[in-house]
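Can anyone check this?
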Amino acid sequence: MTNKTNDTNFIALLTLGDMRLLNIKVPEHLADDPDDAELGLPRSAALILAERILNIWEVPQGDIEAFLTNIADEALSNVLVIHQLLQVLFPRNEPSKYVHTNNKNYDDRTTWQAIQNGESLKVRKYLEHKSLGGGW
């Protein structure tokens, strides 16, 4: 993970302020950076991590390949952040249970179905609201 640069292949994740609010350890070399500094990954690393996350979520391999092909930067960022937020909200539960359970907040679809249908930002905002108390 690195701070944001002018690299167009940078996938922004969370701000350091959000990490602090969520009690996620901020890397030592960024400890004195301001709360609005963004933490992220190069796109190539983000894609590798997203594939691992989707495997942890027990998404079928064919769905993983279809989803990650031509994925937009925002959706890629959202998947990575959604996984982190699930770990914060449900530290003792398997993320796959949440991802594959119907949810009234997504019209009784599963979280994965909402993400697949292009609603990763909606899922992220909902989980941010639950974990950070942000606007929903």
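Reply from J.R.: I decoded it. Residues 1-7 have pLDDT under 50 and may be disordered.
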